[in-house]
Amino acid sequence: MKKILKLSIALLLGLTIVGCSSNDAPVEEVEETTETTETTEAAEGSDVLNKILDSGVLVVATSPDYPPMEFLDENSQPVGSDMMLAQHIADVLGVELKIETMEFAGTLTAVDTGKVDLAISGFGWKEDRAENYELSIGYNNEEGAESSCHTVLLKKEDVEKYPTPESMDGLTIAAQAASLQEMYAKDQIPNVQLEIVQQIDQGVIALQTGKVQGISLSCDIAKGYANTLEDTGIALFEFDLSMYEDYAGNVIAAKKGETALIEKVNEILTDVNETGKFVEWDKAAKAKARELGIDFEE
Question: Residue 187: how many CB atoms within 10 A of its CB?
């Protein structure tokens, strides 16, 4: 089977990984220009931020099946642009980083139950998330960023057959549970029958076996699969994101009420956005993914 499906199997098998500390976390070679911030006083009104600073460890949940943002490398270690961001946050706080890998739907639950401090897993802003969690300001929201383009992966012979979301009326489309792509498909494909999957590769296998007619994905991930699996192709349309433009980019989630923690995260993200760090991390993550056989070019 193609390399990307081998990688997908590795993703499924690798979900029990506990993670790594800041000393051995697999951060790609991106030079940091911001010095570590000394945080010597416990932050008022944030039990989680106090815990992080007292323990010297930041615990982050992610679902490593979303390259280039989070995926497993050849050693089954979580890497990607989001993981570089997580490492940067830990560095600024002056603590070690521990990554907990799990299914996407479980990442927010882990925040809610206190198993982890933050969830960083390619999240977009959604109303229900904002009601139940503290969400950071947006990042990865530059023009052309991964978060700005979403489409459907199809069988190659169906690309011309379904040129618009309207032409897919009533079709069965796979989408990862609780993802933005689930929302886009539900909002914009008339009478869509959603096949909810826990892992993206499960949806791709369902497409290849004919269980579904497409899978809703970000454009980068769709390109990665289409360039590797000869029987798949990318839809001729992108989902219309204009109705969601107030919430562009990705966000980080913390437990509801942990305002001091999310305010500290927002300070760090403001610097990341202003200095263009995430753009560099994205380039490095894509280079690493290409080494594993995932190509994001047209």
Answer: 13
CATH 3.40.190.10 domain locations along the chain:
3-143+249-291, 149-240
CATH fold of the domain at 3-143+249-291? D-Maltodextrin-Binding Protein; domain 2 (3.40.190)
- pTM score: 0.75
Please state which CATH class domain 149-240 belongs to.
alpha beta
- For the chain of 298 residues, list the mean pLDDT of each consecutive stretch of 10: 40 38 39 41 66 98 96 97 98 98 96 97 92 95 81 98 98 94 96 96 97 96 94 97 80 97 97 96 96 83
Helices (H), 145-258: 180-188, 200-208, 219-226
CB 232 within 8 A of CB 208: yes
CB contact burial 234-263 (16+ within 10 A = b; e otherwise): bbebbbebeebeebbbbbbbbbeebebbbb
For residue 175, what is the DSSP state? Answer: E
- Please tell me the distance from the alpha carbon of residue 1 to that of residue 9, in angstroms, as a whole number: 11
Name the 3-class secondary structure at 78: strand
C-alpha dihedral (72, 77, 79, 84), degrees to nearest 10: 160
The terminus-to-terminus CA distance of the chain in angstroms comes to: 22
As a whole number of angstroms, the distance between CA 220 and CA 261 comes to: 31
